Amino acid sequence: MTTATHPAPRKVTRPRADALRNRERIVTAAREMFTEHGPDVPLDEIARRAGVGNATLYRNFSDRDALVREVVCSVMDRTAEAAEGALAETGDAFAALEHFVHACADERISALCPMVSSTFDRHHPDLEASRERVESLVKEVMGRAVTAGQLRSDVGVGDLMIAVAQLSRPPAGTGCPQGDRFVHRHLQLLLDGLRAPARSVLPGTAVTVGELRQCGTAA
Known about the structure:
mainly alpha, Arc Repressor Mutant, subunit A
């Protein structure tokens, strides 16, 4: 009588801690340099700032588009985390929205638009997932403030995000860091204009994130 043998369980290969750290360093360096100089900054300069060799960069990201996509997803994921933080706040719903907007500006989301080139795959599954997560969370943050009677009801997620992008930072590579000192001041002026009751009727209809993408002004 033979006893059935079972194959030994396969070991799941996990990235080493140092490999994960290298990838994080590359993404952080790329985010900084894309913001400072635009999406065409040489990849070897990004590797140098990250403190890794070119081979390590290409082992993680096969080409520029792959790295740009990871940076865009990283910024959107951090924006989503800021929205989750706002939703976790108790008390004043508009104050939570304000905290989100200021945190969102610090992520330099205005640098996303020039990073999306004509050859960039805007429908990559990773991008779609990050985008949907951000849109859903921001809609919830705004919805709470509308329900509380604190946010005017005629603005959409797209209205808010394009205003934050336009006011938060100069476009990547413009060499105008002096504008940083005005960012939160101007954002607060915007937020005061979003409070209910509205003082005027807005022309047109609320803008969605989908409409922004059709116009090429969102990632």
